[in-house]
């Protein structure tokens, strides 16, 4: 692809205006997503402050090893896609393809480990409801913890799947030399979404695995 900017659609004054609008639109979308996840974080914080012992006991049943490995995987995925964006700005589609595919692999690794963790949770009867695996005085509070846990990690996992598909699309487009040093807006927009998904996990990680852990 040449270094000439992509032509702007009729509703934009220029290609630069179109690119800025796309980036601003993603920021606006992420702001609404932050409000959505923020409600979950607020509920989590309130219940933990009201029932610290129950939440601490529930936290002790989470798999810290898997949670920590997944955190490392997402940090590495953010690094790989950020490097890919830097190569996209230079017009190097070949390196962008490689780094985008690496990001996809790291994301799939995260989902795979999360699936293993969920399987362990179900095997230990930690899904809220009849036969819940934590008894005693903290049983009710522990069920609240795991209700929030499955909601938050499920929603995050759904966002991960969307992000993996978007990064895979970037790799496919880069393989066709769709980007250049003067036009890489889709890479930047997808990078913002991927970074947001990683940021949400960096907030969930201490809430799930660290706070009040025995």
Q: Can you walk through the features of this model?
A:
This protein has helices at 15-50, 52-59, 64-89, 93-123, 139-175, 185-210. It is an all-alpha fold and 214 residues long. It contains 6 helices and no strands. Helix 1 packs antiparallel against helix 5 (139-175) and helix 3 (64-89) packs antiparallel against helix 4 (93-123). It has a single domain (37-210), classed as Four Helix Bundle (Hemerythrin (Met), subunit A) (Up-down Bundle).
List the helices and strands and how they pair.
Blueprint lengths: L14 H36 L1 H8 L4 H26 L3 H31 L15 H37 L9 H26 L4
| Strand composition percent | under 5%
| Count of separate DSSP helical elements | 6
- Summarize the helix and strand pattern as letters: HHHHHH
The number of strands is 0
Rg on CA atoms, Å: 20 Å
Helix content: over 70%
Stretches where pLDDT is under 50 for at least 5 consecutive residues are: none
Report how far apart the termini are: 57 Å
Average pLDDT confidence is 89
Give the CATH architecture: Up-down Bundle
CATH superfamily placement: Cytochrome c oxidase, subunit III, four-helix bundle
Q: Might you state the CATH topology name?
A: Four Helix Bundle (Hemerythrin (Met), subunit A)
Q: Indicate the structural class.
A: mainly alpha
Q: What is the domain tally? A: 1
Task: Give the biggest sheet.
Answer: none
Descriptive terms for the model:
mainly alpha, Four Helix Bundle (Hemerythrin (Met), subunit A), 6 helices, 0% strand
Care to give the gist of this entry?
The chain is mainly alpha-helical and 214 residues long. The protein contains six helices and no strands.
């Amino acid at each position: 692809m040449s270094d000439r900017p992509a032509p702007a659609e009729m509703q934009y004054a220029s290609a630069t205006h179109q690119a800025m609008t796309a980036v601003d639109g993603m920021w606006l979308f992420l702001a609404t997503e932050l409000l959505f996840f923020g409600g979950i974080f607020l509920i989590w914080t309130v219940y933990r402050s009201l029932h610290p012992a129950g939440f601490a006991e529930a936290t002790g049943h989470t798999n810290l090893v898997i949670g920590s490995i997944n955190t490392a995987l997402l940090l590495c995925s953010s690094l790989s896609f950020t490097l890919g964006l830097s190569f996209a700005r230079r017009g190097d589609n070949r390196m962008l393809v490689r780094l985008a595919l690496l990001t996809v692999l790291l994301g799939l690794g995260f989902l795979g480990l999360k699936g293993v963790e969920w399987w362990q949770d179900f095997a230990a009867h930690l899904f809220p409801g009849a036969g819940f695996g934590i008894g005693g005085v903290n049983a009710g509070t522990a069920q609240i913890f795991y209700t929030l846990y499955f909601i938050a990690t499920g929603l995050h996992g759904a966002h991960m799947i969307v992000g993996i598909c978007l990064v895979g699309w970037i790799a496919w487009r880069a393989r066709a030399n769709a980007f250049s040093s003067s036009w890489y807006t889709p890479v930047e927009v997808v990078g913002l979404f991927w970074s947001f998904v990683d940021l949400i996990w960096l907030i969930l990680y201490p809430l799930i695995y660290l706070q009040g852990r025995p």
